[in-house]
Amino acid sequence: MKITPTAIPEVLVIEPVVFSDARGFFLETWSRRKFAEAGLDADFVQDNHSSSVKNTLRGLHYQLQNTQGKLVRVNLGVVYDVAVDIRRSSPTFGKWVGEVISADNRRLFWVPPGFAHGFLVLSDVAEFQYKCTDYYNPAAERCIAFNDPDLAIDWPVTDPGQLILSAKDQAGKALKTADLFP
Description:
By secondary structure, this protein is mainly beta. The protein has a single domain (2-19, 27-177), classed as Sandwich (Jelly Rolls), CATH 2.60.120.10. The chain has helices spanning 32-37, 167-170, and strands at 2-5, 12-15, 18-21, 24-27, 46-53, 57-63, 70-76, 78-85, 96-102, 108-111, 115-121, 125-132, 141-143. Strand 3 (18-21) and strand 4 (24-27) form a beta hairpin.
């Protein structure tokens, strides 16, 4: 497995070893021992799976309590995945990184606790799976606006009018007024 830090060193791109032959392929998406040896020693307690159509944008989500680290992957389609550092004490506070992850490139993306997370579906359909280090707590969930000008995330969108957002995501707060981590 190859683990590459992004411009925000705690956010990682993970490329598993893929064994392919005439039958198809095999890869490990999680091995506690191998990931711990590589410096990612996480205790996952919940797995989630979502399916979304093209131009769906989910995020930027986080929880103030039951703070979640997320190991994300795509097993159908293509997404642009984004992590935003929302730890006020961090030298990379307010910075973001994005990565294309897909069923074809088989990359995993590690979004540590203390980050807001979101993704945009680039293919006709995408199935998105992620492991979480804490349980979902709807009372603690918050959302930052995907289009916050202070973040200036470069979403790969040609027509913003085509985006599909939930009511919650449409009501996302600006970074400067959101509840954040110390």
